């Protein structure tokens, strides 16, 4: 019985087109090209065929074999691509929402403090964390062999200071070196704040860290007075802690300011600690020696300066009892702010 070669072709096309995966395609391949497949059967038929039919059957068997090989190979490529695509993106799956982080409380606090001063006309400047002894000490009227240096205990680096033979570079122990750098760069009148990291070799405990943040302030002009300093810092505390903040200026000593003071505050935001004064910053009128080190002419300018500890202020404002929580990166702590 002659084979319906056209019907075989139609079946072949349909079967390959309907093969939805490699396994189904393999079944199709076996059905047509396998040992007991259609093409094999056609060749078997050849043996018993009449001589005049042999040529035609042989030709048709070859045709089917070729077509089957082509269609199956094509389908294989198509299925492979489809597989890759579906592995890459399944648009029907629900999305995965990545948890969003927040700005670290220390940076939020620095932004807020800087904001208050920027609204009063101060501009932000930055100094290097790796500093020279000159800026960290000498230019600030802290002689290298003077005991007042002890309160600014310092990390020294192995790197030599290229400008001072025999002395090494250090990690700044306060942001005050920025005062001198700014004054070398700009002429008065100037009003700057210098936020940044500072380093001191303190043992880590609830209130000490070897690295913390400060915000330095410096205002220089022809007629700057101590009452400007008091007014400025009082306004800052009211804006930052609230109008009802209670504060005091307490006389203090810094080698680079004269007179000098520390500011303490007492506020109802410190639940359970009412009545306790807490120190938040050091301040004073810029010492003439500092102007001299910055290269300003003697007796021409006066200025006020202050330096506040950011961790301290954030702890007070948010009732945080341990400075280490800022660097532990516990998400449960961080995400509250
Ligand atoms: N640099 C001082 C400190 O680290 C703070 C300060 C800054 C005091 C500016 C007076 C003026 O403690």
Notes on the protein architecture:
- With 337 residues, this protein is of the alpha+beta class.
- It folds into two domains: 83 residues; 230 residues, Bira Bifunctional Protein, Domain 2 (BirA Bifunctional Protein, domain 2), CATH 3.30.930.
- The protein contains twelve helices and ten strands.
- The strands form two sheets. A seven-stranded mixed sheet has the order 1-5-6-10-9-8-7, sandwiched between helices. A three-stranded antiparallel sheet has the order 2-4-3.
- β3 and β4 form a beta hairpin.
- α1 packs antiparallel against α2.
- The longest helix is centred in the first third of the chain and has 38 residues.
- The protein is rod-shaped and about 125 Å long.
- The model has no long low-confidence stretch (mean pLDDT 91).
- The structure holds phenylalanine.
- Phenylalanine binds next to β8, β9 and β10.
Quick one: CATH superfamily of the largest domain? Bira Bifunctional Protein, Domain 2
**Which stretches are low in confidence, meaning pLDDT under 50 for 5 or more residues running?**
none
What fraction of residues sit in β-strands?
15-25%
Name the overall outline: rod-shaped
Strand order of the largest sheet: 1-5-6-10-9-8-7
Strand count, sense and closure of the main sheet? Answer: 7 strands, mixed
Q: What is the name of the CATH topology of the largest domain?
A: BirA Bifunctional Protein, domain 2
How many E-type strands? 10
Protein topology:
Blueprint: H1 5-18, H2 22-33, H3 38-48, H4 51-88, H5 105-119, E1 123-124, E2 130-131, H6 133-136, E3 156-160, E4 168-171, H7 177-185, E5 190-199, E6 211-221, H8 226-241, E7 246-254, E8 257-266, E9 278-286, H9 288-294, E10 302-309, H10 310-318, H11 325-328, H12 331-334
Parallel strand pairs: 1-5
Antiparallel strand pairs: 2-4, 3-4, 5-6, 6-10, 7-8, 8-9, 9-10
Helix pairs in contact: 1-2, 1-4, 2-4, 3-4, 5-10, 7-9
This protein binds phenylalanine.
């Amino acid at each position: 019985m002659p084979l319906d070669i056209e019907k075989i072709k139609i079946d072949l096309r349909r079967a390959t087109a309907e093969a939805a995966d490699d396994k189904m395609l393999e079944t199709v391949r076996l059905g047509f090209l396998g040992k007991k497949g259609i093409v094999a059967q056609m060749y078997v038929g050849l043996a018993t065929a009449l001589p005049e039919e042999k040529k035609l059957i042989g030709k048709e068997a070859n045709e089917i074999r070729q077509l089957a090989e082509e269609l199956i190979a094509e389908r294989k490529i198509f299925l492979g691509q489809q597989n890759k695509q579906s592995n890459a993106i399944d648009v029907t799956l629900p999305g995965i929402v990545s948890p969003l982080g927040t700005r670290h409380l220390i940076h939020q606090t620095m932004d807020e403090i800087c904001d208050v001063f920027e609204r009063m006309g101060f501009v932000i400047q930055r100094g290097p964390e790796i500093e020279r002894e000159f800026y960290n000490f000498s230019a600030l009227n802290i002689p290298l062999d003077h005991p007042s240096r002890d309160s600014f205990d310092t990390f020294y680096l192995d790197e030599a200071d290229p400008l001072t033979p025999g002395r090494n570079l250090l990690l700044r122990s306060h942001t005050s070196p920025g005062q001198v750098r700014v004054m070398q760069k700009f002429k008065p009148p100037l009003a700057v704040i210098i936020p940044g990291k500072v380093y001191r070799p303190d043992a880590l405990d609830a209130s000490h860290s070897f690295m913390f943040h400060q915000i330095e302030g410096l205002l220089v002009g022809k007629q700057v007075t101590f009452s400007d300093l008091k007014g400025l810092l009082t306004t800052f505390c009211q804006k930052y802690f609230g109008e009802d903040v209670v504060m005091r200026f307490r006389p203090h000593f810094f080698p680079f300011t004269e007179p000098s003071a520390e500011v303490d505050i007492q506020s109802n935001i410190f639940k359970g600690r009412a009545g306790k004064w807490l120190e938040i910053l050091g301040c004073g009128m810029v010492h003439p020696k500092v102007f001299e080190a910055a290269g300003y002419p003697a007796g021409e300018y006066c200025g006020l300066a202050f330096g506040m500890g950011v961790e301290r202020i954030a702890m007070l404002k948010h009732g945080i009892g341990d400075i280490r929580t800022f660097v532990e990166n516990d998400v449960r702590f961080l995400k509250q702010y």
